[in-house]
């Protein structure tokens, strides 16, 4: 799967009483590939490139460039008896960071009850404690790169219930019968 976007904008601004036009360009390209072995093992790999550039038209004002390169890996193993184990890795390089960030998450899931309607899931997020938020912006005061700590490492246990039947069976049969007659008449 491929996903891409291109943004281009121009904004007139005054910086220190100097008129300038800020021209910004943002390009995002993302490609993802998923391989499955009989739905027992699912492997995902992806790559994302983000480029951001901001130029000022007035003399003496600096331009700003930023890029982010993200490599994504994921592995899901569907075990017998409705157990699933999965993990994800994101390796992020950014020209404003001293070293790359590795975000590692892991999950264990068990489905149970009749028709596997209930699920218990354990999630371990940011196992290596490296996640950071990176944001870039340009406004009337110039360009800013902000690096802050993101959501800290956490563990979560969730219980979910997925009802499979809604309404009465007789109502569904009657509705399907009417739909079939309408299709025959149309």
Provide mean pLDDT, rounded: 82
> Roughly how many Å apart are the termini?
38 Å
Structural class: mainly beta
- Kindly estimate the percentage of residues that lie in beta strands according to DSSP: over 45%
Contiguous low-pLDDT stretches (5 residues minimum) are none
Main β-sheet description: 8 strands, antiparallel
Strand order of the largest sheet: 1-2-3-4-5-6-7-10
Query: Helical proportion?
Result: under 10%
Q: Helical segment tally? A: 1
Shape field: elongated
Q: What is the radius of gyration?
A: 25 Å
Number of domains: 1
> What is the ordering of alpha helices and beta strands?
EEEEEEEEEEH
Number of strands: 10
Protein name: Outer membrane protein beta-barrel domain-containing protein
Organism: Niabella ginsengisoli
Would you write up a description of this structure?
The chain is mainly beta. The chain has one domain (about 1-185). The protein has one helix at about 170-185, and strands at about 1-15, 20-35, 40-55, 65-80, 85-95, 100-110, 120-125, 130-140, 140-150, 155-160. β5 (about 85-95) and β6 form a beta hairpin. The longest helix is centred in the C-terminal third of the chain and has 17 residues, at about 170-185. The two termini are about 40 Å apart. The model has no long low-confidence stretch (mean pLDDT about 80).
Walk me through the topology.
Blueprint: E1 2-15, E2 18-37, E3 41-56, E4 64-79, E5 83-94, E6 101-112, E7 118-125, E8 132-139, E9 142-149, E10 154-161, H1 169-185
Antiparallel strand pairs: 1-2, 2-3, 3-4, 4-5, 5-6, 6-7, 7-10, 8-9
């Amino acid at each position: 799967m491929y996903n891409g976007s291109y943004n281009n904008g121009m904004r007139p601004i005054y910086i220190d009483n100097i008129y300038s036009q800020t021209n910004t360009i943002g390009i995002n390209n993302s490609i993802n590939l998923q391989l499955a072995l009989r739905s027992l093992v699912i492997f995902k790999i992806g790559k994302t490139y983000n480029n951001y550039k901001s130029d000022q038209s007035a003399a003496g004002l600096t331009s700003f460039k930023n890029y982010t390169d993200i490599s994504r890996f994921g592995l899901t193993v569907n075990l017998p008896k409705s157990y699933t184990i999965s993990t994800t890795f994101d390796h992020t390089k950014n020209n404003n960071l001293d070293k790359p960030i590795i975000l590692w998450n892991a999950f264990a899931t068990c489905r149970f009850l009749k028709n596997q309607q209930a699920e218990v899931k354990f999630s371990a997020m940011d196992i290596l404690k490296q996640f950071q938020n990176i944001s870039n912006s340009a406004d009337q005061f110039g360009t800013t790169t902000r690096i802050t700590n993101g959501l800290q490492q956490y563990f979560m246990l969730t219980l979910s219930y997925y009802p499979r039947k809604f309404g009465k069976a007789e109502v569904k049969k009657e509705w399907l019968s009417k739909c079939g007659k309408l299709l025959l008449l149309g």
